[in-house]
Amino acid sequence: MEKITSLKNERVKNWKKLHTKKGREKEGYYLIEGFHLVEEAIKHEAAIHELIYVSGKKVPATWQHQVHHIFEIIPEIAKALADTEAEQGIFATIKLQSTQPQVNEKQSYLLLDAIQDPGNLGTMIRTADAAGLDGVVLGEGTVDLYNGKVLRSMQGSHFHLPIYRGNLSEWISLLKEKQVPVYGTELNEQAVLYDQIGKQSAFALIMGNEGNGVAKELLAQTDQNLYIPIKGQAESLNVAIAAGIILFTLKA
Amino acid sequence: MEKITSLKNERVKNWKKLHTKKGREKEGYYLIEGFHLVEEAIKHEAAIHELIYVSGKKVPATWQHQVHHIFEIIPEIAKALADTEAEQGIFATIKLQSTQPQVNEKQSYLLLDAIQDPGNLGTMIRTADAAGLDGVVLGEGTVDLYNGKVLRSMQGSHFHLPIYRGNLSEWISLLKEKQVPVYGTELNEQAVLYDQIGKQSAFALIMGNEGNGVAKELLAQTDQNLYIPIKGQAESLNVAIAAGIILFTLKA
C-alpha cells in the first residue's frame, strides 16, 4: 500500500488521463468510481489493476487481498479523479481487454448501430443484462464504452455479459450462419409489429442511432424489421426505452 | 421586435435566472431552447411569453405573428442562455401554469413518486405520451419539470398531455372513486408478473424513486403491485426502462 498526498504525483496525473478515450487507449486502463462498481468488478473478477481510496475509507479486507496495487489518497485527489460531484472516495483502474467475437446458436444479442448518447448506451447494456441476453455488440460510431457516464448507467453490467466491438454487417452474417434470427428496428409502419412475432429463445436485435435510426444497409440484411406503434403525439420513443420494450417482449 | 446587444441587459439577467427553480418561480416563466421545442410550443399553443433568437436566424413568419414579444440577440447572449453546448440560437419563455387535477373514467395515468434524475423524468413523460396515456402526476420529491435536462428529454411531450403536481395518496383515492385500477411497481417477486394482467383501457401506474422504489404507504393503497422479472445478473432495471416496458404491455 502506497500513500499519495499530492495532486502533482505522476500516478494521479496518469489516472486523470483515463477520463478521455485517448488517455485510456494510451494507458491501457479505464477508471471506475464508487463502491458499487468496484464491488461488481471484484465479484466478477475483472482485471483490476489498482484499487484507490481515500485514507480512512472502510474497504473490505478481501478486496485488499485480491488487488496487488493499493493506494491511499487524500480527499483533494478523490475530487480530481471523480467524474461526479457525489464521489464516494473509492476508485479502481481496470485493464482494457478486447473480447473475441463468438456467436453461438441459441443465444441472444443486442447490436448497437452508432449510439451516441452515453446514458443511452449504458442503459441499453444494463437492460440487455436484465433481459438475460448473452452479449452486446457495439458497431462503428458508437460512443466509447468506458466513458464515465456509460459506466455509471451500465451499473456493472459489462462485468456480467461480453461486450464486443465490431462491424455489424459482418456480425449479421455470422448470426445468420448460426441460424439466429436478426431483427432490425425502424419507425416505418410498414415494418412488423414488435409484439406479433412471439417469444424467441435466440435472436439478435439491432437498435440504431438516436437521430437516424438503424443504417439502411443493415436493415436490408435482417430477417425482419420491427416497429413500435406510437399512440400519442410523441414523434418517437427514446432508443433505450424502445430497446427495453422489444427485448422484454421478445426474450423467451 | 427589440434588439439586445449587451450581456448586462436587465432582460438577459432575468432570462438567466430561469435556469434555476427558484428563479422560474419568482419570474413565473420557464425557458425552452432549440428549434424543435419552440416549434412544439407554437404548434400546441403553449403560453409563449417571449421569442428570442440570434440576429439573422431564420424563423417562420407565422411564429412572429403568434408571439407578441420578440427579441433579437447577439451570439454571446445565446451562449449565456443556453443549457447545452449545441445551442441553436433560439429560445422562448413560457408562462408557468398549474393544471387542476381532473380524473376521468376510462383514462390512463402515470404517477411518479420522488423521481430524482431529470433524464428519467423527461423520458418517462415522453414515453407516457407515446403510449397514449392521458396524464402524468408528479408526486412530492420529484425533480422540477422545467429543469433544462427534463425539458430536453421530454422533447415537448409536456405540450401534448397534462402534467399535474399533487399528493399521490390523494390521487390514488380519486382514481379509485372513478374505478380506475391503480398498479404499483416493486422489485419483490411476490408481486404480480407485469405481463399477466392483460391489456387495460384505463389504469394508473406508479413508478418510484431510483433508489428506494415506490413508498410503502402508496403500495399499500394500490389494487395490485407489479414486478418485472430480472433474468440476467443486473440488480434492477432503470426506472424509465421499467416504465416503458409496463406501459406498453398494459395500455390497450
Automatic annotation (TrEMBL), chains A, B:
<dbReference type="InterPro" id="IPR053888">
    <property type="entry name" value="MRM3-like_sub_bind"/>
</dbReference>
<dbReference type="Pfam" id="PF22435">
    <property type="entry name" value="MRM3-like_sub_bind"/>
</dbReference>
<dbReference type="GO" id="GO:0006396">
    <property type="term" value="P:RNA processing"/>
</dbReference>
<dbReference type="InterPro" id="IPR001537">
    <property type="entry name" value="SpoU_MeTrfase"/>
</dbReference>
<dbReference type="InterPro" id="IPR013123">
    <property type="entry name" value="SpoU_subst-bd"/>
</dbReference>
<protein>
    <submittedName>
        <fullName>RNA methyltransferase, TrmH family</fullName>
    </submittedName>
</protein>
<dbReference type="Pfam" id="PF00588">
    <property type="entry name" value="SpoU_methylase"/>
</dbReference>
<dbReference type="InterPro" id="IPR029064">
    <property type="entry name" value="Ribosomal_eL30-like_sf"/>
</dbReference>
<dbReference type="InterPro" id="IPR051259">
    <property type="entry name" value="rRNA_Methyltransferase"/>
</dbReference>
<dbReference type="GO" id="GO:0003723">
    <property type="term" value="F:RNA binding"/>
</dbReference>
<dbReference type="GO" id="GO:0005737">
    <property type="term" value="C:cytoplasm"/>
</dbReference>
<dbReference type="InterPro" id="IPR029028">
    <property type="entry name" value="Alpha/beta_knot_MTases"/>
</dbReference>
<keyword id="KW-0808">Transferase</keyword>
<dbReference type="GO" id="GO:0032259">
    <property type="term" value="P:methylation"/>
</dbReference>
<feature type="domain" description="RNA 2-O ribose methyltransferase substrate binding">
    <location>
        <begin position="31"/>
        <end position="100"/>
    </location>
</feature>
<dbReference type="GO" id="GO:0008173">
    <property type="term" value="F:RNA methyltransferase activity"/>
</dbReference>
<comment type="similarity">
    <text>Belongs to the class IV-like SAM-binding methyltransferase superfamily. RNA methyltransferase TrmH family.</text>
</comment>
<dbReference type="InterPro" id="IPR029026">
    <property type="entry name" value="tRNA_m1G_MTases_N"/>
</dbReference>
<keyword id="KW-0489">Methyltransferase</keyword>
